[in-house]
Amino acid sequence: MRGATRTGQQGLRPPVPGPGPPGLAPLLWLLPVLLALLGGAGAQYSSDLCSWKGSGLTHEAHRKEVEQVYLRCSVGAVEWLYPTGALIVNLRPNTFSLARPRTLCIKPLSDSSGANIYLEKTGELTLLVRDGEHGPGRVQCFGFEQGGLFVEATPQQDIGRRTTGFQYELTGWHSGADLQTPSAPCRPCSDTEVLLAVCTSDFVIRGSIQNVTHEPSRQESAIHLHVSRLYRQKSRVFRVTPEGSGWQGRVTTLLECGVRSGHGDFLFTGHMHFGEAWLGCAPRFKDFQRMYRDAKERGLNPCEMGPE
After folding, report:
1. 4, 103, 185, 241: most buried, per Cβ within 10 A?
2. Inside any domain, residue 22
3. Is residue 234 part of a domain?
4. Residue 298, H or E segment
């Protein structure tokens, strides 16, 4: 791994205690050490265990080539001002369980520049985001077993006004094996997948498609919906219409899925991702009614939900 030659603090040696009362001698030489540690930590970064913000211009950052960052939340952000050297981002969320596969997704900040972001495992680096490639909506996902994050500053003659940063989310609903933007597959969901999506999705609604707009620069399509029945929503994506005749909102999917406007009611399910609603399973509502009733008659429905 390039740049990963020194990872610990160096040069902190307590001064030889001078004359004074014997009982104060340990305190006299400990005090400069404590002040150095506290002062360096305060100037080096700020962190609330969910997000980290640091600067490559601090005295401490210049004394070692690799900075270790520790985060313990499922959602947060990393912001690195004037990047120099490298960062190793250690994600150890409190909700982490080895028994349940987890996927980490990162989304570069819109003005991110000054460093490359890699996936690192046992010294091997896989480039995720090249310096300056922070196109709108660019998201990369990978499983925890695929490695961790290594952020390396690129050589710059002038590092002024450069900031490297990204948001991150830990999810358990996307395989992430292909390092692609998480969304439902373009293929239709099976009956079992639909019934499970009803129980586990961040939003479940009944509605119709008003319009579909495509955003080639983001490789995304936005599906604008009129919602007649709101079963569940984790965030307030769908809001009451001005005339009070239901709800309205939009969900996002991949452009390659080729979504088009269609008549009739659908059951829309999906997950929140970086503040946006991403489409999961979306069968026609009459098909959902059939599969729900069939599963209930056989006692196979994973959760209760009125099909009407």
Report:
1. 103
2. no
3. yes
4. none
